[in-house]
Design brief:
Shape: globular
CATH class: Alpha Beta
Number of domains: 1
Helix content: 25-40%
Low-confidence stretches: none
Distance between the termini: 47 Å
CATH superfamily: Clavaminate synthase-like
Structural class: alpha+beta
Oligomer: single chain
Length: 302
């Protein structure tokens, strides 16, 4: 039985049904899922029934899964290292009260692309809702392929050979976390082209968002102004939609052709338990590695 695919925007985002994600995925269905992902960039599966093990198993059809970093002096919530915590709960399941942790997480409410601050880029993210607030807490997505295609030709010519330096700590500073520019400069960052070809579709896409701190080929302020202009262009209403979650809903997005941000909610009043797997771009490493852990250890927080 073929998948049922309902587009959200004409070229971006789709709700998919007609497949049981808790069961092994046959090769032909896997090919359909990957093709839909390549075409639409963001796919939504409602009421999946997935648990942690099923979430991880389904995620593996997309490629090699990253492991979450272990933060110094903070016990992890999840037994499975493949699960990144995207909620507002501590290891005991209580709503986080620590102001610094909450400030750090507020960076996720800026338009961003997962893990662009690491040289080994993340392709797909798969976010599963376990517990959701009664209002707010949605995720917004922006189409960076269509945005690139609709840029004026003069802008395409201007940015075609430029790169950006991406830093996790820059986006955290922009969200209010207490860091200086000097501190950020001592911590690891990664450099990526502003424009690249999305391998799954062959379409060009912008690769920018909140982790992008500077454009090395331009003076600092000029580069930051250009980054802000590109982000603003790509997040116009015609390129954007949001997903409101129910328990069991899974959203898969391709970080190489989209940006996303979390929606606001009353994080001190309502619980939000969201768990994410992250799939690395390209083939699995030949030996075990831990790029997120290396980043945090080099930054003095793991």
């Amino acid at each position: 039985m073929p998948l049922t695919i309902k587009p959200i925007l004409p070229r971006f985002g789709a709700e998919i049904s007609g497949v049981d994600l808790t069961a092994p995925i046959p090769p032909d269905v896997r090919d359909e899922i990957i093709a839909a992902q390549d075409k639409y960039g963001v796919t939504v599966y409602r009421n999946t029934g997935l648990d942690d093990e099923g979430h991880i198993a389904f995620s593996r059809i997309f490629g090699h899964l990253e492991t979450a970093p272990r933060i110094k002096d903070r016990r992890p919530r999840h037994a499975h290292p493949e699960l990144f915590d995207a909620g507002n709960l501590d290891a005991e399941g209580n709503i986080i009260q620590d102001e610094l942790i909450r400030l750090h997480k507020k960076g996720d409410r800026l338009w961003h692309t997962d893990s662009s601050f690491i040289a080994l880029r993340s392709a797909y993210s798969l976010l599963l809702a376990h517990e959701v607030p009664p209002e707010g807490g949605e995720t917004w997505f922006a189409d960076t392929r269509s945005a690139y295609e609709e840029l004026p030709q003069a802008m395409k010519d201007r940015i075609g050979n430029l790169t950006a330096e991406h830093s996790l700590w820059w986006s955290r500073k922009m969200a209010g976390f207490p860091l200086s520019e000097e501190e950020i400069s001592t911590r690891p960052s990664a450099r990526h082209p502003l424009v690249h070809v999305h391998s799954g579709s062959g379409r060009k896409a912008l690769y920018v968002a909140a982790h992008a701190r500077s454009i090395p080929e331009l003076p600092t302020e000029e580069g930051r102004a250009l980054l802000a202009e590109l982000i603003a262009f790509a997040t116009q209403p015609r390129f954007v939609f949001s997903v409101k979650y129910g328990v069991g809903d899974l959203v898969v997005w391709d970080n190489l052709c989209s940006m996303h941000r979390g929606g606001n909610f009353d994080e001190l009043a309502y619980r939000r338990d969201m768990r994410r797997t992250t799939v690395r771009e390209g083939a699995a490493p030949l030996v075990k590695d831990d790029p997120f852990g290396e980043l945090f250890r080099a930054s003095g927080v793991a």
